[in-house]
Amino acid sequence: MAGTNAPAPRWTPVFERISDDKRRRVLESAKAAFARDGFAGTNVNRVAAAADISVGALYKYFRTKDDLFLAIIEESHALIESTLARIFAAEPSFFGRVEAILRAAISSSRDDPELVRIYVACTTEELSPLAERLSGSIETISATQYSRMVAEAAASGEIAPDVDPAVTAFLLDDVFLMIQFSFASTYYRDRLRLFVGEAADDDEAIVAAALAFIRRALEKRPS
Amino acid sequence: MAGTNAPAPRWTPVFERISDDKRRRVLESAKAAFARDGFAGTNVNRVAAAADISVGALYKYFRTKDDLFLAIIEESHALIESTLARIFAAEPSFFGRVEAILRAAISSSRDDPELVRIYVACTTEELSPLAERLSGSIETISATQYSRMVAEAAASGEIAPDVDPAVTAFLLDDVFLMIQFSFASTYYRDRLRLFVGEAADDDEAIVAAALAFIRRALEKRPS
After folding, report:
1. Other residues' Cβ atoms within 10 Å of the Cβ of residue A204
2. Is any Cβ of chain A less than 8 angstroms from the Cβ of B143?
3. Residue A219: helix, strand or coil by DSSP?
4. Which of B121, B139, B164 is closest, CB to CB, to A194?
């Protein structure tokens, strides 16, 4: 969009000139590999083979494995931004938004578990130098949007007036993030099951319980 | 302890016969390497060199790199169990316990960030087959203890009687875990800072805000 500081893309101009279909194949193969094998365990030769291109071609599209990984993470930022924009436009009320975000956390994890698995990989210590090279971060989007959402609801009297918007946004995101992890990653799905048993398969029960918890934590009380 | 089903140790009998000092050196070197480089990135030759032993000796103590990794994760289970037992014995009230767990989440992460970083590594998809080989799990301890703590407080009237112990335990652990991550891992520390700014250095502010959130979410209301 004109006027925004769009970062330089991670790919080369050559990648922009290939067919949509080939571009999609390259990104999907890389995403599947990073999600399954992690960054260190991903072999670019196998990514190229799965995308049905030569490894030489792959290096013409992305100069390094780092660039390929970062491109995929950054793709997910756009997705989060558009999801939140859609929810905020459709839902004027604070708790309506929280409920919609909880549902989106579950559905996005079910639709695209690989992206969430790559996010988990990206939080490991050995990848922190790589994560620091991200042009922006998922966290910047969430921190900004959730803090504003809380501050507006506190100002309008929709939630308790004395909550700290920044720490509240952090606590909300803790819950949203753990729910995303729980519906995408093998480790966190097993963890959810240990905590809640068969309710782990009952999305509505999880949404209702998390919403009730957040509602009670933040709603305005009679003074 | 007699009567418990202690799992077979990950190490060999030879490892039990070496000096305490050498045992500690081996475990500390391995912990540092796994925390910094991840599982795939850890080189056992370098672990042996850092512990001032031969790689041949290391393989006499641990048959595989998997065993060495699992031994370190399992060591942390004992730590969590004893921390929770100490808190539960010292703090009879529900919110007193929650506050003590929040403080312990921060202090344990500051005291031993490497263990938390290894935990984050252990949740990645590529390590899920390894994580499934754990004799028990941190999650089993937390799920059991927190569910019981919530159920008891609901029964005694200390918190709202209608909360679901299992899902509430999960949500509480989401917050505890994210606070642990935030005080140990580079990625999550940066995330906390994005959300709360300078308050990220103010442990007391974080504890107070999280406790207030949880207290409001769970306290009994006048009917």
Report:
1. 10
2. yes
3. strand
4. B139
Which residues have C-beta within 8 Å of that of residue B22, sequence separation ≥ 6?
Answer: B51, B53
Across the interface, do A125 and B121 touch by the CB < 8 Å criterion? yes
The residue ranking higher by pLDDT, B133 or B101, is B101
Distance from C-alpha of B216 to C-alpha of B160, rounded to nearest angstrom? 10
pLDDT(B87) > 70: yes
- B72: phi then psi, degrees, rounded to nearest 5: -70, -40
Report the C-alpha gap between B26 and B209 in whole angstroms: 40
| ipTM of the prediction greater than 0.90, yes or no | yes
Mean pLDDT of A111-123: 95
Cβ–Cβ under 8 Å, residues B130 and B191: no
Backbone angles phi, psi at B198, to 5 degrees: -65, -20
Please state, in angstroms and as integers, the Cα–Cα distance from residue B144 to each residue in A160, B84, B100, B131, B199, following that order.
32, 11, 18, 19, 32
A209 burial class (0-12, 13-18, 19+ CB within 10 angstroms)? buried
| Chain center to CA of A167 | 20
Residue A159, SS3 per DSSP:
strand
> In the block, which residue shows the tokens 């459709």?
A90
Give every CB contact of residue A127 below 8 A, 6+ residues apart in sequence: A39, A121, B38, B187
Match 């065993």 to its residue by tokens.
B67
A-proximal residues of B, 170-209, CB under 8 Å = 170-171, 173-175, 177-178, 181, 185-188, 190-192, 194-197, 199, 205-206, 209
Model pLDDT, residue B4: 45
Tally of CA atoms within 13 A in the half-sphere of A67 that contains its CB: 15
Tell me the three state secondary structure of residue B61: helix
Beta carbons of B68 and B45 less than 8 angstroms apart: no
Q: How many residues does chain A have?
A: 223
Residue A207: its chain B contacts at CB < 8 A? Answer: none
